[in-house]
Amino acid sequence: MTNYITKYLGMAPVAAVHAQGLDNLLWYVHVLMAVLFVGWLIYFLYVIVRFRKSRNPKADYHGVRGHASSYAEAMVAIVELVLLVFFAIPLWASAVAKFPDAKDSLVLNVIGSQFSWRARYPGADKIFGKQDARMVTAENPNGLDLKDPNTKDDFEVVNDIVVPVDKDVIVNVSSMDVIHCFAIKPMRVTQDAIPGLKLATHFKATGTGIYPINCAQLCGNSHFAMRGTLTVKTQAEYDKWAASKVGAGAAGSYE
Hints:
Layout: H1 2-8, H2 19-50, H3 68-97, E1 106-113, E2 116-121, E3 155-158, E4 160-164, E5 168-175, E6 180-184, E7 189-193, E8 199-204, E9 209-215, E10 227-233, H4 235-245
Parallel strand pairs: 1-5, 4-10
Antiparallel strand pairs: 1-2, 2-3, 5-8, 6-7, 6-9, 9-10
């Protein structure tokens, strides 16, 4: 099914666990819409020919006497119900409503701003340092409480996010200025970044590699340049990378 999606619908290759189910549902909906489009077009042409004026000079006020249209509508409704109950609702439950346990996941805070993505990691203790809007300065844009001991092992990166393979990743997305949209198409992740709100999304990468991060919401005159990369490493490679970053972002500096 994935080959059909990537070949005929122009989708990016699948790189996350829940992406396959999403692509399958998308393909089924497209097939249903194609069948309906062709079916109704054929019926429309049939009606034009069958009930043309030369063949029916006098109007018939009795209307349709058969039940073929009712059966067709019932079949369409049944197919839509099957897609909803057996595909859409379970997919929503697993990919949207049900989040992985934060204790067993990598949790990131990603903030969009014109025109970059800043990702904050909680460090080895998996606890983010405190933040306070009253502490925001040019040197400390996130308002970090530098006296909080949990802040000391936190670190930040700009545009180049790194995660381990085969591990749940929870991303809390927000914005410092206008509305952005955090999108990683191979992971089938698209989450609006709205000022004042922290909205979560999640994914689990199925293979190592480098994938593009884009802003999917027009956010200003340099919207096109708001790009980043998601690098998926093995767990050992990620641990080594994270250990080298500890402390780098505690004072508000970014790499």
